[in-house]
Write a structure and sequence with these properties.
about 300 residues; 5-stranded parallel beta sheet; 5-stranded mixed beta sheet; 11 helices; 10 strands
Length: about 300
Amino acid sequence: MHIEPFAVSKSSLYVVATPIGNLQDLTPRAQTILRSVSVIAAEDTRVTGQMLKHFGITTPMISLREHNERAMSEKLVARLAAGETVAQVSDAGTPAISDPGAQLVAAVHAAGFKVVPVPGASALTTALSGAGFMCPHTLFYGFLPPKSRQRQDAIAPLAGLPYATVFYEAPHRILDTLNDLANGFGQDRIALVARELTKTFETLRRAPLGELLAWATADANQQRGEFVIVIDAAPPAEPDEANAHDHVLRPLMAELPLKQAVALAQQITGAPRNALYERALSLKADNQNDEEIDTES
């Protein structure tokens, strides 16, 4: 590994990761790029301005946020066409990961100009590295819906997946979200709550979801800041248990919508809702395949 002499390339977009809390996490390469480009497209120029001031960077900025990204992307592509260089940053972390940025990157690709990712801080990878889950696969979901019913519907098909699942959450919804996650994934599923990563009051706590909900409920300080929640993968089902409740599920599914059938099956059997839901999805898929075969015949 070696260090190449660096100069920004003409007509290039640099997608620059910035610190998620600790300013020391801005890499030397990122600092050089932010000093060298023609303009910095920032999610919030006030937030980015504080960071730039800390490093003595005086590059001009323009605002590129969710509500103006399409229009600003056209203007920035025009500047690239004129030979300028652009750096894109979000308020914290890596742009386009649950933040604005993807539209600009897509527009630059479509226009045929160069896109250069500049790696650095990311709440996603920071939390995963501190979780200690040995599942080799990860599903990044991002933010769940803000309303409880929609959130529960989003959680239901995720609970039985063989992936470590990662969510972002804001402080005003953290208790409601932990409650819905505990109900959907199960009170005993191991998870990590990572709060205020890289900041002064950084907290990482790993425990069953039910315990994490109780812990956060009991301490108002643990309800502040930005959150990453990592939930361990579902344990593999025992071969002889996967179809243990088919005798209940099948007749219910023949008469009721899937969610109602699962809810009633849970009341009857006492089995975990997420396991019943996954089995119901499997049975539904098998039935559809059988119908397609019959049609072809």
